[in-house]
Fold:
Amino acid sequence: MNCELCHGAGGTLLWQNGLCRVVAVDEPGLPGFLRVVLQRHVREMTDLPADERGRLMAVVFAVEDHVRQSLEPDKMNLASLGNVTPHVHWHVIPRWRDDRHFPGPVWAAARHDAPVPAARAVAAERMAVTLSAALSALEG
Amino acid sequence: MNCELCHGAGGTLLWQNGLCRVVAVDEPGLPGFLRVVLQRHVREMTDLPADERGRLMAVVFAVEDHVRQSLEPDKMNLASLGNVTPHVHWHVIPRWRDDRHFPGPVWAAARHDAPVPAARAVAAERMAVTLSAALSALEG
Structure:
């Protein structure tokens, strides 16, 4: 099976357990964009047993919580799409009123290409570094 | 507060309980597009207590399950965005390889404007009618 999330991490690995991993995505203009990727190849959330679905969502929400506490974005966006790569993965995306796509989804056309505020980019780097400690409570 | 999901259903009401409602969305070219809307005004999933978060996601996944069983789409898309209307709501969107936006997200530019196959439109109407019975197990 030629699945890029089976053959690669899908971003910079920040944390993982047996069920899923959290990776940082390098998307221009979107600092703090993370993905929660299921370790094994499953197409849809409803193909997962309910207990694993719950454990995966607990990670998604713990990641959202850490991103919000670290970056205080104007809004959080969560999405499980997988049209190109049908291997369960969640996009966890902090949004700001002044970001390139706001208030559109990040998949809509950009509205400007102004640089990201430097302090926000630095905070996003720090958020990625501290994610692992923030999720340590989930590993037990 | 001027929130359209506090002042209106947000679509055609198909089912509801005390926590949330399921509405059908009339999006051209996207039959079977549903939303799960929290009844009260809360901005982010991580602003909800964990038990309500779990109950809301159980509805989202029950809706996904019903849509899949009814329509057998090529992929399901789930998203909680709320940049325009920051009141928790989930988009539950069946996708087909021949739909207007595939494999892009539905918020990306359309790739064509071919009509929806008639049988699919009919099946989506039937899916909406039968949703309430499919979710009855959740009402207890």
Summary: The longest helix of chain A spans residues 50-71.
